[in-house]
TrEMBL record:
UniProt family annotation: Belongs to the FAD-binding monooxygenase family.
Keyword Phosphoprotein tagged: yes
Pfam family, one: PP-binding
Protein name: NAD(P)-binding domain-containing protein
Domain Polyketide synthase-like phosphopantetheine-binding: 79-147
Alphabetical list of InterPro entries matching this protein: ACP-like_sf, FAD-binding_Monooxygenases, FAD/NAD-bd_sf, PKS_PP-bd, PP-bd_ACP
Upper lineage: Bacteria, Bacillati, Bacillota, Bacilli, Bacillales
Species assigned in the record: Bacillus subtilis
Length: 422
């Protein structure tokens, strides 16, 4: 790195050094020679100067300092706070029942929203918070229960519990659908799953490439994505599992479900009969059928078929043109090629990496806006946070990685917007 960032200097004062070019070269040589796979963290430590009582370490090893004895101010208007936080972070108003992730809330904004809520209400929120409570309405409901259950539970309306032997219908057998079905069964709720395709796994089957890997560390993405873990929880074999591992785990979880999974099945209509009773009309093998269920959860995912954009003169282009998904571009085609990638989403970054790893001479990304690309270390740090990391701290972690690439992170649109709000 050309210059030491203030973060590096602070780390040195507490006993953590930085990796020199020589040390980095030796470490890479040893790792390549060993043939080992996985994620390795290498850092020089000055044991005589090591201080473990620093913000990051304290955040990871100390008991949750946010669980204090002070009562939450019950006059806080949860609805206004959550809605205002969403507007400030996304820059626009989102309907209470709309999925935040589908409405444009990206990874960094998700962490920022979770941290802002956790810090304000002095509560501990799991890394999967916005997956478990994906819209404003469910967030508000959860916070009411969480913050008022000990001091004002009598004031909360008690939901009427309706016992039913009918299953809950889950639409979609991707990772999200299987995880939801698995957790319902753990709670003693019968389920039935309907999937339009002929297999489980969702987009990991339909869109992922063989080179695709999970781009966040696996504990934050799984079939038991809850705060209180147990020995029976599903665990990944690697930190950033591949397409094949995710599909294999999806098939295993599907096999362990007690309820049935109907493949090649299309849900046509859902009609409410009464509370906790719905009539579902679906099509399977060309026949229309009906089923009564006690509830419906649609987990069809936020990733959809890519947009096919034809550019002027494309038909006369002699090179390879593809969408970069579903293995439509053999890696060998990147050898000595000059590559142009349109867009800056996850598949764009993946194809850039694949192209360079397979001998491309140059890769150019053309996009309307630059998305933030999170280094693995920054991602790990965010998911290890107890809800107290600000956007400024996240940017501070990412800055040296951007500087190493000759980029200024403060020039990114999302960071500019957050900087203006702070």
């Amino acid at each position: 790195m050309a210059e030491r960032h203030s973060t590096v200097k602070r780390a040195e004062t507490t006993g953590f050094g930085f990796i020199s070019n020589e040390l980095g070269e030796k470490a890479i040589e040893q790792l390549l020679a060993s043939g080992k796979k996985g994620v390795v963290c290498i850092i020089p430590i000055d044991w005589s100067n090591l201080q473990l009582d620093i913000p990051l370490i304290s955040r990871l090893i100390k008991p949750n300092s946010l669980q204090n004895k002070d009562q939450i101010d019950l006059t806080i208007n949860l609805e206004d706070f959550v809605r205002n936080a969403v507007v400030e972070i996304t820059g626009r108003t989102i309907a209470d029942d709309a999925s935040l992730l589908d409405s444009g809330l990206d990874s960094l904004a998700s962490v920022s929203l979770r941290n802002r809520i956790a810090t304000h209400f002095k509560v501990n929120l799991a890394p999967s918070f916005l997956f478990d409570y994906p819209d404003i309405k469910s967030i508000i409901r959860y916070l009411r229960i969480l913050t008022l259950k000990d001091s004002n539970s009598a004031a909360l309306p008690t939901p009427k519990k309706i016992s039913s032997n009918m299953p809950v219908l889950i639409i979609g057998a991707g990772v999200g659908g299987l995880a939801f079905a698995r957790n319902l069964e753990k709670s003693g709720v019968p389920i039935v799953v309907m999937e339009a395709n002929d297999r489980v796994g969702g987009v990991w089957h339909s869109l992922a490439n063989q080179t695709s890997r999970l781009q966040i560390d696996s504990p934050g993405y799984g079939f038991d994505c809850t705060f209180h873990s147990s020995s029976n929880d599903q665990k990944w074999g690697t930190i950033f599992p591949s397409k094949n591992e995710i599909i294999a785990e999806s098939e295993y979880v599907a096999d362990t479900l007690k309820g049935p999974i109907y493949f090649n099945t299309y849900v046509k209509k859902i009609q409410k009969v009464e509370d906790s009773k719905y009539e579902v009309t679906y099509e399977i093998e060309g026949q229309s059928k009906k089923m009564m269920v006690s509830g419906v959860a649609a987990l069809t995912g936020g990733l959809h078929n890519p947009v096919k954009q034809e550019f002027p003169g494309e038909s006369s282009f002699k090179g390879h043109i593809a969408l970069g998904v579903a293995d439509d571009t053999p890696p060998k085609l990147f050898k000595d090629a000059s590559v142009v990638i349109v867009g800056h989403g996850a598949f764009a970054v993946e194809n850039m990496r694949t192209a360079l790893e397979n001998g491309a001479k140059h890769v150019t990304i053309v996009c309307r806006k630059q998305n933030l690309v999170m280094p693995n270390f920054g991602n790990w740090l965010l998911n290890s946070s107890k809800g107290v990391m600000s956007v400024e701290e996240v940017v501070d972690v990412m800055r040296p990685f951007y500087q190493a690439c000759g980029l200024r992170i403060w020039k990114q649109l999302f960071v500019i917007r957050m900087g203006n709000l702070c």
